[in-house]
Amino acid sequence: MSDSREPVLFLSGAGLPAWIWDEVRRDLGDGRETRVASRPESTKARLDDHVQAALASVPEGGFAIVAHSGGGVIGAQIARCVPERVTALLGVSAVIPPTGGSFISAMPVPNRWVLGAVMRFAGTRPPDSVIRRGLAHGLDDQVIDRIIADFTPESPGYYRDRVGRGAWDGRRGYVRTTGDRELSPALQRRCAQRLGADWHHDLDTGHLPMIEEPRAVAGSITRFLDARS
């Protein structure tokens, strides 16, 4: 049995604020130390800058990662950079690139071509209408308005930089969101396979289950961390 009291580092998806995890952290209880990864402030930040900002957010020693959406790319890179510290990684509708790949290369064709072109000409912030019907689908209007107001565009490096090829042998799990309009269940299955997840759970939610069903997400995290390797 692993140490189920290990600190948990939450990695928010691209552009999403730390508060999306507030209810999940509350439902996990005071007995488990949790942190939400900070972001680098530079608009030219690279993937490794995100890794260093995240590592600065967690205490010394071992920790588990819960990574959502694009945070899966950062989580995968952290595990490769400090494999001796990362005890487990749970993806929640997480983007996991192939070895040596990037967020963009994790997308299927032709989506990756479209995404690359859109970023070159329109930047990395999606239109409010896209956030409403995709990323935030299933949430009430007040919460959606707050997400739009607090959304922070990521740097191009977040999407284009490639993860390393280092090995890591920690525990791996994946929570799939079956009503997701942002990351299809089929793509999530491929990401879970790339992660090498041997623990799986499905939630009938959209792309932001930590807001839509925080208690269910907290339960998934607890079961994953308490499971035998």
TrEMBL record:
Q: Any signal peptide, and if so, which residues?
A: none
In terms of superkingdom, the source organism counts as Bacteria
| Domain AB hydrolase-1, chain residue ranges per copy | 8-218
Pfam families, alphabetized:
Abhydrolase_6 (PF12697)
The record, for InterPro entries, names: AB_hydrolase_1 (IPR000073), AB_hydrolase_fold (IPR029058), Sec-Metab_Biosynth_Hydrolase (IPR052897)
Question: Which Gene Ontology MF annotations are present?
Answer: hydrolase activity
> Do the record's keywords include Zinc-finger?
no
> Which keywords does the record carry?
Hydrolase
- Write down what this protein is called: Alpha/beta hydrolase
Q: Which organism is it from?
A: Nocardiopsis lambiniae
Provide the organism lineage as a comma list: Bacteria, Bacillati, Actinomycetota, Actinomycetes, Streptosporangiales
